[in-house]
Design goal:
The protein is of the alpha/beta class. It has 15 helices and 18 strands. It folds into 2 domains: about 230 residues, Aldehyde Dehydrogenase, Chain A, domain 1, CATH 3.40.605.10; about 190 residues, Aldehyde Dehydrogenase, Chain A, domain 2, CATH 3.40.309. A 7-stranded mixed beta sheet has the order 10-13-14-9-8-15-16, sandwiched between helices. A 6-stranded mixed beta sheet has the order 5-4-3-6-7-17, sandwiched between helices. Helix 8 links the parallel strand 6 and strand 7. Helix 2 runs antiparallel to helix 4 and helix 3 packs across helix 4. The structure holds nicotinamide-adenine-dinucleotide. The site of nicotinamide-adenine-dinucleotide has 28 residues, from helix 7 and helix 8.
């Protein structure tokens, strides 16, 4: 690995080591190690090898922590990062090139360009629901942009965290990428340090802690948060397709997905048909007893399991509702027309419970959405383009799909991020590279000509010329 400070992995971080870890990353950055594109490419290729050579281990860890079905884990935690890596590999030189900009006549002769400059040391704090993807996808952009990176995975998925803590120093330059394991205390110790960017994914309450700490050092932040993402099903929707796509997006990872449909607003007249199709889809996907299938994940821990059962208390359960605390299992559950003031309709559900509410019209659905915080995602199902366009233009959300769920996240050509309380900033593909680069404006002038017009003394002749042209 060459010269530099060797940073060992931190199984459960000794808090006193944190300042040195950050200082080590800064020293490596200041030494210029991460700047050459060839170094970045090599690190990205190693990260790809980490994923492809250890897929089985990571799948097993995702199964242990979240009961993640193999196909879901392979696609949403591993393939999505490999796809991101390949996209970066195909484009990095182009993105990193100086970008020419126009030069106004008044500044000629001269030329202008925008340089992409690495920021320095980036802190990535990630949650437990997609613990591989949400830690490594920001890392791809951080390396691509030429930064050093400190990774802080979630303590809630500790099998995945400890696997990554072991693998990352085996594959990546340990002077430039390091991982700190631990929980609140370790994260807070990290937040006391100065970083050049903090990339946080998780809930809004912790995001406020992160932003407050970042303010102390004037460190910019990207906040990837959550919220209650609605689905709107119009009368003219293809109900079979809507039921299937909503069910898939909802019960993927047992509903523990930041962009999962949180609730459905279905237009009056088709609610019975839609609900029956949803129920039939659950049977088709997971069988009569979904506890027996391998294709449905589990709730991350006992605390979240109890929280979800609490949300169901006193609710009009229309389908499902069975649970098993020992297995952290909750059946795919549909609640019909819960009270909008109930906790189920106030908090982000983040589990396998789907409220379905009937609304008299699309206008009423739009009103319902607009009376609440801006969500991370919104999904509209309709056969009419004017209906889906009306929903898209009259509501605000981080991203959206028409006649689909989740796919907006998986396209590296689209920015992924929230708006308002669902997040700040965006990433994926070129977006991560741009977010974790400084855009430096540069003007270069020749010296063979140096018109005196702009310099004092400001004679009346100069003033007259300036008045004429400006
Ligand atoms: P979590 O509990 O794992 O917390 C996320 C990170 O914050 C962890 O690394 C944790 O150690 C740290 N943390 C927790 N409490 C802290 C504290 N008091 N001080 C400092 N650090 C602390 O995950 P979570 O927040 O429960 O994740 C679920 C939330 O994340 C949901 O709201 C979901 O919608 C959102 N989410 C958003 C995205 C996105 O890309 N927008 C993706 C996944 C999840």
């Amino acid at each position: 690995m060459g010269a530099g400070v060797q940073l060992a992995p931190v199984p459960h971080t000794d808090l006193s080591r944190i300042p040195d870890l950050v200082a080590g990353l800064r020293q490596a950055f200041d030494g210029g190690r991460t700047r050459p594109i060839a170094w970045r490419r090599e690190q990205l290729a190693r990260l790809r090898a980490l994923l492809t050579e250890n897929t089985d281990r990571l799948l097993a860890a995702l199964q242990a922590d979240l009961g993640k079905p193999e196909l879901e884990a392979r696609t949403t935690d591993i393939a999505v990062v490999v796809q991101e890596l390949d996209h970066v590999a195909a484009n990095l030189e182009r993105w990193a090139r100086p970008e020419p900009a126009a030069t106004p006549l008044t500044q000629k002769p001269g030329s202008s360009r925008v340089l992409r400059e690495p920021l320095g040391v980036v802190l990535v704090i990630s949650p437990w629901n997609y613990p591989v993807q949400l830690l490594l996808s920001p890392l791809v952009g951080s390396i691509a942009a030429g930064n050093t990176t400190l990774l802080k995975p979630s303590e809630l998925t500790e099998t995945v965290s400890s696997a990554l803590a072991e693998l990352i120093p085996q594959y990546l330059d340990p002077t430039c990428t390091t991982l700190v394991e631990g929980g609140v205390e370790e994260t807070q110790a990290l937040l006391a340090e100065r970083f050049d960017h903090i990339f946080y994914t998780g809930n809004g309450a912790v995001a406020r802690i992160v932003m407050r700490a970042a303010a102390e050092h004037l460190t910019p932040v990207t906040l990837e948060l959550g919220g209650k993402s609605p689905c709107i099903v119009a009368k003219d929707a293809n109900l079979d397709v809507a039921a299937r796509r909503i069910a898939w997006g909802k019960w993927l990872n047992a509903g523990q997905t930041c962009v999962a449909p949180d609730y459905v607003l279905v237009e009056e007249g088709v609610e019975e048909a839609f609900l029956e199709k949803l129920r039939a889809t659950i049977r088709e996907f997971y069988g009569d007893d979904p506890q027996k299938t391998d294709d449905l994940g589990r709730i991350v821990n006992g605390r979240h399991h109890a929280r979800l059962l609490g949300l169901l208390e006193g609710q009009p359960i229309w389908h499902g509702g069975r649970s098993d605390a020992a297995q952290r299992y909750i059946e795919p559950t549909i609640v019909r027309n819960p009270r909008p003031e109930s906790k189920l309709m106030q908090e982000e559900i983040f589990g396998p419970i789907l409220p379905v509410l009937t609304v008299p019209s699309i206008d009423a659905a739009i009103d319902f959405v607009n009376k609440r915080e801006k969500p991370l995602a919104l999904y509209v199902f309709s056969s009419s383009e004017s209906t889906s366009e009306a929903v898209l233009t009259r509501t605000s959300s981080g991203g959206a799909c028409v006649n689909a769920t989740i796919w907006q996240v998986a396209n590296p050509h689209l920015p992924f991020g929230g708006v308002g309380p669902s997040g700040m900033g965006s990433y994926h593909g070129r977006g991560t590279f741009e977010t974790l680069s400084h855009h430096k404006a540069v003007v270069s002038k020749t010296t063979w000509v140096d018109p005196k017009i702009a310099y004092p003394p400001y004679t009346s002749f100069k003033k007259a010329i300036v008045r004429k042209v400006m």
